[in-house]
Amino acid sequence: MSRRGRGRGGRGGRGGPRRERFSERAEPWTPRTSLGKMIQEGRISSIEEIFTEGQKIKEPQIVDALLPDLQEEVININLVQKQTDAGEKSQFKAIVAVGNRDGYFGLGSGKAKQVRTAIEKAGVDARLNVTPVRRGCGSWECGCGKSHSLPFQVQGKCGGVEILLVPGPRGLGIVASEAAKVILGLAGVKDIWTHSFGATRTVPSFAYAVFDALRRTYSLVTPTEWVR
Predict the structure, then answer these.
(1) pTM recorded for the entire structure
(2) Is 90 helix (H, G, I), strand (E, B) or coil?
(3) What structural domains and CATH numbers belong to the chain?
(4) Other beta carbons within 10 Å of 189
(5) Distance between CA atoms of 98 and 106, rounded to whole angstroms?
(6) Could you read off the pLDDT of 89-146 as tens digits, one per residue?
(7) Cα-Cα end-to-end distance for the chain
(8) d(Cα 120, Cα 112) in Å, to the nearest integer?
(9) For residues 118 and 135, what is the distance between their CA atoms, to the nearest angstrom?
(10) Residue 8 in contact with residue 75, Cβ under 8 Å?
């Protein structure tokens, strides 16, 4: 499955060259955890079983094995600098989102001296953070009962950014910024209103605020609870 790079820094431009999937560039997988061994032996055949049993994913290959149609998008790439005794140390920091466009989504970050390595590290981190997204039709304008939006409004927060996701009727589309459209699309959300507050131009914080909101759809947090 091809993945499109997003190469305009914070704006995340489309049209980058094709990069191979994590599973295509990695060596043959030898599971190191009991969960990985159970999957390779066929004792676990779906990712739903992992979340139902409350197990933690510690190997990125697990996600590739159970979600073969996983897609990946680079959300943001920045050059970060750190002052050390030897001088300034420069690295690239990448934010990568993964999802199967059908209820599973993850977001991760990675740092490295090379852009490609930073993206690969972020892709691994995103796979380890994959979470189910509860979808439904929570819009009072629609009520079709299909899983095209969210079942209720939910809010997420990261740093100085807050975002509110409000279910929309079928045909509305994703009313959001470019980064949020990519993230919500990978999660399988098709119709949604978004309201954001704070330093929304800070792309990493904004992306993680959306991730926090989506993750809350499957948590035990009261659906309409606002993040403080």
Answers:
(1) 0.82
(2) strand
(3) 9-132 (3.30.160.20), 154-216 (3.30.230.10)
(4) 28
(5) 5
(6) 899 999 999 999 999 999 999 999 999 999 999 999 999 999 999 999 988 888 888 9
(7) 39
(8) 9
(9) 31
(10) no
